Amino acid sequence: MTSVDKPTTTDQDAPAGAHDSKAVTEAALFDAFGGVRGMVETVLPGLLFVTIYTINKDLHLSAIAALGVSLLLVAVRLIRRDTVKHAFSGVFGVAFGVVFAMMTGNAKDFYLPGMLYTLGLAIAYIATTIAGVPLIGLMLGPVFKENLSWRTRNPGRKKAYAKASWAWGLILLAKCAILFPLYWWADTTQLGWVLVALKIPPFLLAVYLTWVFLAKAPPPIDVFAEMEAEERAEEERKAAAARAAADPQPRPHHGEA
């Protein structure tokens, strides 16, 4: 029995299992998006870059420091045998930014790959939702052990994923609407500090809205548990057939001559 299915003592106004469902949703979102540590790993390289550049205007030192701290964060995770997907994504983002800035000699280009990625992600959220396969569902389906069952078997959950994907797409588009004009008109330090300031609040808003939509949605269908149950049932059928073959029906007794 999953935590979603366990009976709990709830408030009179809440349906049975609602609190458990919200707790499961919160835990899954925390895991999927990296939690507090993931946010720190996302913000720290950019914060270090803009801080050093604000002080001494040294592009090379700022870029090396940002890349160095990203690699350090990955090393810490490897040493502690933690998941490294969030730290690795940070390293790649910083590395692309360093390459762009070094190639052009313009410190603002350190932020350009991340901004383009944000714009592309916003478009992907909206486009996939319009296509009927909202991106947030593709991302969170495996986390909730439902894979793509929500597309055909759980319409309420598909609707929640669509709402969440719209929220992510529009929030990221709004962020881009602020950053891209600054890229053209502001200087490096102004762009950098605004970008650092916009790292966490839009992310938290999108995660919160995702939690709200999914917490009110029907619980996920655990397709892994279903497959395991089918495998067990198949094994039991085979075992029963084998026992029947090994133990034939007794022959009827004949009268004595």
UniProtKB/TrEMBL annotation:
<feature type="transmembrane region" description="Helical">
    <location>
        <begin position="165"/>
        <end position="185"/>
    </location>
</feature>
<feature type="transmembrane region" description="Helical">
    <location>
        <begin position="59"/>
        <end position="79"/>
    </location>
</feature>
<keyword id="KW-0472">Membrane</keyword>
<protein>
    <submittedName>
        <fullName>DUF3159 domain-containing protein</fullName>
    </submittedName>
</protein>
<feature type="transmembrane region" description="Helical">
    <location>
        <begin position="191"/>
        <end position="214"/>
    </location>
</feature>
<dbReference type="InterPro" id="IPR016566">
    <property type="entry name" value="UCP010219"/>
</dbReference>
<feature type="region of interest" description="Disordered">
    <location>
        <begin position="232"/>
        <end position="257"/>
    </location>
</feature>
<keyword id="KW-0812">Transmembrane</keyword>
<feature type="transmembrane region" description="Helical">
    <location>
        <begin position="86"/>
        <end position="103"/>
    </location>
</feature>
<dbReference type="Pfam" id="PF11361">
    <property type="entry name" value="DUF3159"/>
</dbReference>
<feature type="transmembrane region" description="Helical">
    <location>
        <begin position="115"/>
        <end position="144"/>
    </location>
</feature>
<keyword id="KW-1133">Transmembrane helix</keyword>
